[in-house]
Every structure is written in structure tokens, then in C-alpha cells.
Sequence to fold (607 residues):
Amino acid sequence: MAIDQDLIDAVLKHADIVKVISSYLSLKKQGKDYVAICPFHDDTNPSMHISPEKQLFKCFVCGTGGSAISFVQKYEHISFFEAMRKVAELSSFDDPRLHHEVKVKPVDERKEPLYRCAVDLTTYYQYALMTSEGKEGLDYFEERHLDNGLRSRFKLGYAPRDGVKTCKFLQSKGHSLKTIEDLGIALVSNGQPADRNQGRVIFPICDGDGNVVGYSARRIKDGPEAKYVNSPETLLFHKSSILYNYHIAKEKARHVGYIYVLEGFMDVFALARIGIDSAVAIMGTALTSEHIQMLRSLNVEVRLCLDGDLPGQTAMLKASKVLQDAGLNFTLVDNQGSSKDPDEILNEDGEDKLRVYLSNLIGSVDFALNYYQRMNPLKTMNEKKTLIKEFIPILKGIRSQIELDTYIRKLSKITGFEVESIRELVMKSKMEPSASSEEVVRHFHPERKVLKRLQIAEREYLYQMLNNSEAVELYESEIGGFYDEVYRQIALYIIEYVRNHDDIDYLGVLAMLEMSDIENKEELINELVQIISEKNHPDQCTKELLLNLIESIRQEKEDIFEDDALAEALEGKPPLEQARIYAEFNRRKMKRKKELEDKQSNKEAKD
Fold:
């Protein structure tokens, strides 16, 4: 439902964030602010800071932050409107608009009959499991240590061998044959529609809201038929957008601060058996963009734990790159050379061993090195050189000398190259561009130092935009857009807020972000709260400050674009031509720098 911005502003104006959060947490005064144990990750020391002055909270460990409304929304896992109404109640503020009923988004009319059919079919499967025929299915589940509580929680069942009767049962409940077919259940057998899952144990698959949308049916005994029969792609079921058990795990994960990403159902059941409910399974597929979006929305640490065999560990390596590229906070479970999965560890070695296994977490660099050392030994010189090239950029970014030496020694052991040779290569890549164009483009990034200065200037200007409408006007007329994508997105929300209000209010901008459905909403909110919370900004926003920032941003952006053009010009050119291009680039850059210095000197002389 659409919420009036002035209503949000009024609620936040009357709210006291300290009073609101103290209704949920125990707060301790620390100077002008308050601190508390953060409920959004596994916190042991008070890492959440609450500012009465700014009316914001911010956790400096997990990064979560926001207003009083966003705290209640995240803590209680309710809608923005419900959270706003709760904050108003705690603040003794009332408005007739707060009593409007929250409108529930209607279900897609095409999907509604499929959902109803899936409910009846799932109940039928659960009932069949308790019949005399279903005993073989029940025995299978009990052999796998799945007791009645787990069977009920995950809606496990059995599909009778007479699949024709299953379809007739669904028709007797009022479901059309087309609906049964559209659900992906009916197949023609001897001229009649029959259940494709017949004679198998059933694992219902739910969407993020807990609705059954598909099934995975497993054979009970060994035989020539396929081990699993899975639902085809339907209007409800899209495997690329399903994480098994997500509907249960999402709430648990937000409270404990992490979520395990596993291979299959049995791994999820194994963790549930030892009381870990914050676990999902990718069901044998690669991580997709939809999976990443679902994991990102939780704002917790992702703990990747796929099978310990070579295919599973190779999938782990690929998935870690996907998670890294997506910017998610993640670690990996180190299998220590064991090929057992969590279900096997629990059944063969016991609960304690499984807990130790799950808590043995390592970073992506350590995992990759262990992978090549254990799972995929390098044989040829080219394979070893390729691995070195992949790790050089990683090693360059490590600041700790002890950590760097450790990784170099590991890399030496894997490749057989001398430690000193690898160390020299790392130093060379830091100090000199290579002779070949490929290496120049790969390792030569002069824009990085400039980009750091640019981010500082843009960050400061963004802060001024949150406090001064003139800064917003100059942004539109003089800057046009920040180089940093996150800052650029936040700036657009500020502009939209200013266009509809007499003055700027950062809490109002924050509320606009919290109500948006933008994919990286949490990232924008946390970054905005961080910028507002920083104490190193100038006390006053003057026209001179804004103009100086604008000039810095303009100049640094020009340098970046020039460096990008240089990299493009160097690509594919022979060494002598590269040297000529690079010399010309430096000549123009030094000339422009001198012109700017002369201009600044003349300005200072006039002043």
C-alpha cells in the first residue's frame, strides 16, 4: 500500500529511537549515545550504537542500521506500515491514516488453483505415508533417521503406486485435469492421466512464503529407474529461484546471523536434527542470480557447505566466486579432506563431529589453495602458471606480511615454484607493469589511487546533500551524477525527496529507501546510515566548500576517464608503441597539472 511521506515524517518526528529500541533491547549509555547487543548477528559485545541526536541506530559489526521504524521492521519481521504503526504506538502518536487496514497483495489468479491443488496433493501424500502400502516409504524415512516431527515439519509423504487413483482423488476435490497437468503431476498412462511420482517417497518443495510449488520424488529401492523424479518447470516451480527450506530458514538466519547453503534435502535434515534450522539447499544446481538475491535480502553471513567429493568441492569453488562477485559476506566449510556430507557425518560419527565440521570455517583464498592442493593437483607447467596468475592479484591486496608469507608458502607447495620466485613476482606486479599488453592491462591500474580520492570527495558531497538543498541543486546542475554507483543511487532518492518537500530531512530519505523495492536496498540503507553517523564532516556547509568538492570530483573523474582511455589505447600494441603512448599520456597529464597549479596560484594571489 502507498504510504504518505508526511505521515512517515510525522511518526519519525514524534518518535524517540532510544525509547523504541529499549522496548526490545537492554541499552547502556555511552557518552551521548547508547549501545546494545545487536540482535541481527551473533553478537557478544555491544556493537549496536543508538544516537538520540541523529535518531539512528547502527551496528558496526554486521553493518545493519536505520531509523526507529526500520529497527522494528527488521526485529519483528513485519511490513514497513506495521512497523510504523508500532513506533507510533510506542511514541503515543496517533493519526487516522495509521488505522487503515494493510492491504494484502492479491494472489495471481492463474496460480491460485495450482496452490490449492498442491495443498490437497501434499495432504494426500502425507496420509498415504501412514497407510499399509506407505509403510515401505515410512521405513525408508525412519532408516534415514527422519522422525515424525521432521516428517511433519517438511511435509514428507508417499505417492501410492496407483497413480491413476491419485489424479482421480484430486479431481474429486474439484481440481480440473488441466490444473493437475499444469502442476506438473499428470502423465498419460494406458490412456489415463496418472501421477508421475507414483510409488516413490515425496519431498515437497516450497517457495519463500511456504507454499508448496513442486515435488522431488525418490525411488525407495535400488532399480533401473531414475533415482529422483523432479517437478518440471511450471507456473509455480522455477528451480533457479528456489532454495529448499528458505521459508523456514530465513527467519532463523536473521536471528542467528548466518545461513548454511547445502547440497540437498538430507543435508538440511541433518542440520535440523541437531537444532540448526538456518540452512537451505540448492538441490544440485549452480547458484543463480535469484538465489543470490534471496541470500542478500537476509543480510547475514553465508556459510557454503557442499559435498566433500571432487564435484562438490569444484562446485564450492565456483559458488565462492559467484558470492564474491556479488559482494556477499561469506565463508566456506573446510571439509579437511573428507568426502562425507553432513548427513553421513551425523549418522556415522555423531552430533559432536558434525558440529565441529560445520564450525570449521575458512575464507575463499584458503579454500581455493586447499582445493588445488587436495582435490585437483596441478600436473602441467601451464596449469601451475595459470594458478599463479590467478592468485597474484589476491596476494597483492594482502597487507599483513605474516598472512602474505603463509599464502606464498602454500602456493609454493602446490605449484612446486620457489617461495622467493613467487614473492619476487608479487613485488614485481606491485612495482612495475609487465612488458606485454595483457599484463599491462591486468596489473596497471593507475586509477585506483585517484578513485580513492574521488570516493572521499563524493562521499563528503553526498553528506552535504543530506543537509543542504543548495548542494542538491548544484549536484544536478554541475555534477550530474557520482562515479560511485551506490552514492549515485542515494543521490537520486535525495533529489526525489527534495522535489516533494520544502526542506531536506535525512530520516525522510531513509524512509523512502526502506519502502522501496530496489534490489540492493539494504546496502544503500546501511551506507546512508554510515555516512550520517560519521563525525569527520565539516561543521558548516559553505558555498566555497561545495564548489571545491565539485571541482575535485570533476577533476578526478577526468583522470579516471583518461586512464581508462590509456588502458584501451595500450591494448594490443607492441612494446615500443606502448612506450610512446604512455610517454604522451604523462606529458599531457603533467601539462594539465601545471596549468591547474598556476590557476590556483593566481587565485590565491588575487585573494
